[in-house]
Amino acid sequence: MRYRVGQRVRVAARPHEGHHRTPGYVKGKSGSVERVHAPFTNPETRAYGSDGLPKQPLYLVGFAQRDVWPDSRGHAGDRIYVDVFEHWLEAE
Amino acid sequence: MSGHDHEHSHTPITNGDEPAAAARAAALEELLVEKGVIGREDVRQRIDWIVSRSPADGARLIARAWVDRDFKQRLLADARAAALELGLDPGPSPVVVALENTQAVHHMVVCTLCSCYPKALLGPPPDWYKSLPYRSRAVSDPRGVLTEFGLELDDDVELRVLDSTADIRYLVIPPRPAGSDGMTEEELAALVSRDSMIGVSQPSAPAPGGGLVRHS
């Protein structure tokens, strides 16, 4: 587990061909680690018949709604939380 | 020269009344069975399991959390273990996370990538949960979505949207309604709607009289 709760992280902005579980709307966005879940098999390889090993640590990352959607009609304190695998995160 | 320039004198090519998605699912199942990836019995058992689940199970968890503070703490710490404690099947997901809605914080759940949902505790997800408008707007305009569900949050409430993109399943613990003092756990469970456990509505208000049957 490379990151700890409270740490600032950025979601990698890279494109990815094929199945992956990192929503496009958070790519390149910065947030903070809310929970460190556990390692899980990697859906990017499991989707194509492999065993998904090695497992990838999964984190719940929290973002300010306004950082994700600059034109957001929401309130300043509104937040969005997304489960992101470790290999999609970069330290800030 | 396009192949579509000919006169369409033939009848449209359709699949009868079967929706395209159903035909595609049937074709996929045929292929998966033919290739030995799954068996027909697996599919039948999985369908049986899904349709046997209902929001009543999740409601039992919530009602217990409302009447038992220690249980609520255990539910918040490990919802899987808390479900097992009540004899409920928490499903195949290795981690179920319960999130408490209060006067200050409101959680709502979406799966923008598909339709991840705590099926074991809530049953099959409603059609709107799987729809593209909900999946896209729950993250981009959540307060607008809640308004359409009839839920206007106060300005000072912090809204938290959970996008369940991977292996974790999220269950909302809605606030106990006012006027429900003295109700039994079973009566309380009847107030807990499916939508309140997704976080797009609040539990029902008790009937006048607190839900207690009065005999005169």
> Can you give the mean pLDDT of chain B?
90
How many DSSP-defined strands of chain B? Answer: 4
The CATH superfamily label of the largest domain in chain B reads Nitrile hydratase alpha /Thiocyanate hydrolase gamma
- Let me know the average pLDDT of chain A: 95
The structure class of chain A reads mainly beta
Brief digest:
The complex is a heterodimer of chains A (92) and B (216). Chain A is 9% helix and 37% strand.
Can you walk me through this structure?
- The complex is a heterodimer of chains A (92) and B (216).
- Chain A is mainly beta and 92 residues long.
- Chain A has a single domain, classed as Roll (SH3 type barrels).
- In chain A, 9% of the residues lie in helices and 37% in strands.
- Chain A has helices at residues 43-46, 65-68; strands at residues 8-11, 30-40, 56-64, 79-85, 89-91.
- Chain A is globular and about 45 Å long.
- Chain B has 216 residues and is of the alpha/beta class.
- Chain B has eleven helices and four strands, in the order H-H-H-H-H-E-E-H-H-H-H-E-E-H-H.
- Chain B has helices at 20-34, 40-52, 55-67, 69-77, 79-85, 119-122, 127-130, 132-140, 142-148, 185-189, 194-198; strands at residues 95-100, 105-110, 158-163, 168-173.
- The radius of gyration of chain B is 22 Å and the shape is globular.
- The model of chain B is unreliable at 212-216 (pLDDT under 50).
- The interface between A and B is medium-sized, with 28 and 23 residues.
